[in-house]
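To illustrate the input format used throughout this study, we show a single complete record. The first block contains the structure-token representation of the backbone; no residue identities are included at this stage. The design step must infer an amino acid for every position from geometry alone.
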């Protein structure tokens, strides 16, 4: 680094975390990773979905002298992340095919003039003329690789375009620090990706895979649809995902929910791109709080206020289950992951594995081998569905984390001691509930006005904390988790008005 600010002037990472991102403290692994990158060391961060990988590169990006490039495979993810950054007052941009020629040219011109600190782009774009020009006109301090497991042939999501990354890094006049992030934990993939990306003695950070705010439950209901409706009734006005195994089931479940008056939308690979995008947006913007989907949905969706993920069918393996269930509760608030299991799910999965047409390119022996692996993984998934042991410990054990104490926060742990569901939930008094509704409405209004996703204004957690703390002025508002200076300036007055009004009504 060296050519950055001197250490005297440089703010501490913790100060930036609080002032720019509005969080009190680092999550496990974040600080170590950030310090490694700031010291010029390559790093690999393996953290579960929702673990907080973005801050690990966004924060050092603000402190490094030049530009940070973030390589990401998904357009929706880039748009969302950049939108969130801009809300925080950070100069971010993306270069991808969602921009037309003119917009792209302008973004590149701006980038070449040093307008942006963080630029997201797809791997295919790295070795294009435009990005070359950028690399010649501005120093690139850091290259971050999101979903880095895509570089490995051993992973499920291998993307040949990721091999462009090391080629690009080699071509730069000065080698930037390189960071790789993934939520896929197998040691083999981890080693592979460091090699493939040509990392130099990287610092490895692997945080635990536990997500304490998630409640895990398995049900074997007589009637799945009734069980689903019962779950939804426990989450009025909250947002959630219902995963089904087949497109047909998505259609049926979604239709039945809509008939009952739920604001549900659908998502699967058989829909036109346009409808997929529209439905996904309706979900992200809370216009349709419930989305019924196949596993085609979710990669790259960063919606922090998903309160429940219900699996209407058992997925094919534990990796899929944990990844999909893990889309709940990303903002850290309590969320539920419920699996509605039946023996038919096992047969359906078996059938799908046997019918799977891919791997046509490999020989028969290899194909057989791969199928057997898949069936073994399915068997382990089925064991989760029927075990009487702690569900969380069963999941974590699968990913290599051993625990002996039962978690106390899954349906197997609480079945013995649990009274009727819901009773143990702290009853929020009605006044606070009314204020919370008003805050949610205000957020919807602001979101519409500013054209951003509600969760990018304030997370559900932030609104709940506001309803709890009842800040009276900007200073008090800034103490609330997730409220930054930039957001306070932009939205503070509106939300403080809502709180003041509710106090008046009660006195
Ligand atoms: P990942 O990319 O690992 O799936 P994200 O970076 O999207 O996870 O972070 C998940 C959520 O956690 C986001 O809403 C983010 O703002 C929040 N978050 C990250 N770091 C912290 C922190 N130190 N304190 C509180 N919330 C955090
Ligand atoms: Zn448990």
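Output of the design step:
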């Amino acid at each position: 680094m060296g050519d950055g600010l001197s250490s005297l002037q440089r703010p501490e990472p913790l100060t930036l975390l609080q002032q720019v991102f509005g969080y009190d403290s680092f999550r496990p692994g974040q600080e170590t990773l950030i310090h490694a990158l700031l010291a010029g060391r390559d790093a690999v961060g393996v953290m579960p979905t929702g673990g907080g990988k973005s801050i690990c590169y966004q924060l050092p990006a603000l402190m490094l002298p030049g530009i940070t490039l973030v390589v990401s495979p998904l357009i929706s993810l880039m748009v969302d992340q950049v939108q969130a950054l801009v809300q925080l007052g950070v100069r971010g941009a993306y270069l991808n095919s969602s921009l037309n020629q003119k917009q792209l040219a302008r973004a590149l011109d701006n980038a070449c003039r040093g307008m942006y600190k963080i630029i997201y782009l797809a791997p295919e774009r790295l070795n294009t003329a435009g990005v070359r020009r950028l690399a010649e006109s501005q120093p690139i301090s850091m290259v971050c690789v999101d979903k880095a497991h895509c570089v490995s042939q051993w992973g499920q999501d291998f993307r040949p375009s990721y091999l462009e990354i090391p080629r690009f890094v080699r071509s730069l006049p000065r080698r930037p620090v390189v960071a790789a992030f993934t939520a896929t934990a197998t040691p083999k993939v981890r080693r592979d990706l460091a090699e493939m990306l040509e990392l130099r003695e990287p610092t490895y950070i692997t945080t635990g895979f536990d997500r304490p705010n998630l409640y895990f439950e398995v049900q074997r209901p007589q009637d799945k649809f009734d069980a689903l409706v019962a779950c939804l009734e426990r989450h009025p006005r909250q947002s959630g995902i219902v995963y089904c195994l087949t497109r047909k089931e998505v259609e049926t479940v979604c239709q039945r929910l809509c008939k009952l008056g739920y604001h549900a939308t659908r998502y699967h690979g058989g829909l036109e791109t346009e409808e997929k995008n529209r439905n996904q947006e309706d979900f992200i913007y809370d216009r349709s709080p419930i989305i019924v989907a196949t596993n085609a949905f979710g990669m790259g969706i960063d919606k922090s206020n998903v309160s429940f993920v219900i699996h209407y069918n058992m997925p094919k393996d534990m990796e899929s289950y944990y990844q999909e269930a893990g889309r709940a509760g990303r903002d850290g608030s309590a969320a539920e992951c419920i699996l509605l299991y039946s023996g038919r799910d096992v047969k359906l999965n078996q059938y799908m594995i046997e019918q799977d047409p891919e791997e046509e390119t490999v020989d028969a022996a290899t194909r057989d081998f791969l199928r057997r692996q898949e069936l073994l993984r399915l068997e382990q998934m089925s064991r989760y569905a029927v075990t009487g042991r702690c569900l969380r410990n069963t999941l974590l054990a699968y990913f290599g984390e051993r625990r002996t104490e039962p978690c106390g926060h899954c349906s197997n742990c609480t079945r013995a001691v649990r009274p009727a569901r819901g009773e143990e939930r702290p009853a929020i008094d009605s006044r606070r509930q009314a204020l919370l509704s008003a805050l949610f409405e205000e957020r919807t209004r602001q979101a519409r006005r500013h054209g951003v996703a509600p969760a990018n204004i304030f997370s559900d957690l932030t609104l709940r904390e506001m309803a709890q703390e009842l800040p009276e002025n900007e200073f008090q508002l800034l103490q609330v988790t997730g409220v930054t200076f930039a957001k306070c300036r932009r939205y503070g007055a509106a939300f403080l008005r809502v709180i003041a009004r509710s106090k008046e009504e009660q006195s």
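Structural context for interpreting the output: Residues 23, 26-27, 30, 47, 49-55, 302, 304, 330-332 surround adenosine-5'-diphosphate (ligand 1) (CB under 6 Å). The longest helix spans residues 364-386.
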